[in-house]
Amino acid sequence: MIAIIDYDAGNLKSVEKALKFLGEDVVITREKEEILNADKVILPGVGAFGDAMHNLEQFGLIDVIKEVVELGKPFLGICLGLQLLFERSEESPGVEGLGILKGEILRIPDCPGLKIPHMGWNSLKIKPEAKLLKDLEDPYVYFVHSYYLKAADENIVAATTEYSTTIHASVQSGNVFACQFHPEKSSRVGLQILRNFAEIEKGEA
């Protein structure tokens, strides 16, 4: 069972649909017991960093997420879900993130000829040890974001992309995986990424 955390941050149904297409057993929930009983957990999301952290707190989900990570269950953050795993974001000064991973979320620098938000397909430069991104024939994925991750520890960066600056597009740290792009909107490549996550076993990460 894969639990998708519902904290009113959108984009849940498309993730659910993609996983069900792959034959996975999926539940969208904000119930603590359902989340803790799941084999794997996904934190998707679109929207503002500060609003999202407020919602997670209101629904009592911050400690639940940290407990899932401590239990060693495979955990996947998508888009805003990646950003929330880190310490802070320029989008919402003074708001603390989950702090599960070290790093900050910065605004994509203005650059002549490039639009912000970054919206569209970009190729990934993938590290060989990236479990989430293995067996990708043509790693083009779909991004929609104005802010990007700068991880404190380069060793957790599983993939990068270039858009005005070097963007840490995916991370891997123990049982925690995350991607700034949207696998559920990234066609066949995205389905392979979600399949890779579904196949990761607890303790294997």
Tell me about this structure:
The mean pLDDT is 95. This protein is 26% helix and 30% strand. The two termini are 17 Å apart. It has an 8-stranded mixed beta sheet. It has a 3-stranded mixed beta sheet with strand order 5-6-10. The protein has a two-stranded antiparallel ribbon with strand order 7-9. The chain has one domain: Rossmann fold, CATH 3.40.50. It is globular and about 50 Å long. A hairpin with a 1-residue loop joins strand 11 and strand 12. The longest helix is centred in the last third of the chain and has 13 residues. It has 205 residues and is of the alpha/beta class.
Strand-helix topology:
Blueprint lengths: L1 E4 L6 H10 L4 E4 L2 H6 L2 E4 L5 H10 L3 H9 L4 E4 L1 H5 L3 E2 L13 E5 L10 E6 L1 E2 L13 E6 L1 E5 L5 E7 L1 E9 L2 E4 L7 H13 L6
Parallel strand pairs: 1-2, 1-3, 3-4, 4-13, 5-6
Antiparallel strand pairs: 6-10, 7-9, 8-11, 11-12, 12-13
**What is the residue-mean pLDDT, rounded to a whole number?**
95
How large, in whole angstroms, is the Cα Rg? 15 Å
Number of helices: 6
The coarse overall form would be globular
Which percent range fits the helix content?
25-40%
The secondary-structure element order is EHEHEHHEHEEEEEEEEEH
Question: Could you give the order of strands across the largest sheet?
Answer: 2-1-3-4-13-12-11-8
Q: List the domain count as a whole number.
A: 1
The quaternary organization reads as single chain
User: Tally of extended strands?
Assistant: 13
Q: Give a quick account of the main beta sheet: strands, pairing sense, barrel closure.
A: 8 strands, mixed
Strand residue content: 25-35%
Q: What is the level-2 CATH architecture name?
A: 3-Layer(aba) Sandwich
Under CATH at level 1, the class stands as Alpha Beta
Kindly report how far apart the N and C termini lie: 17 Å
- Look up the CATH topology: Rossmann fold
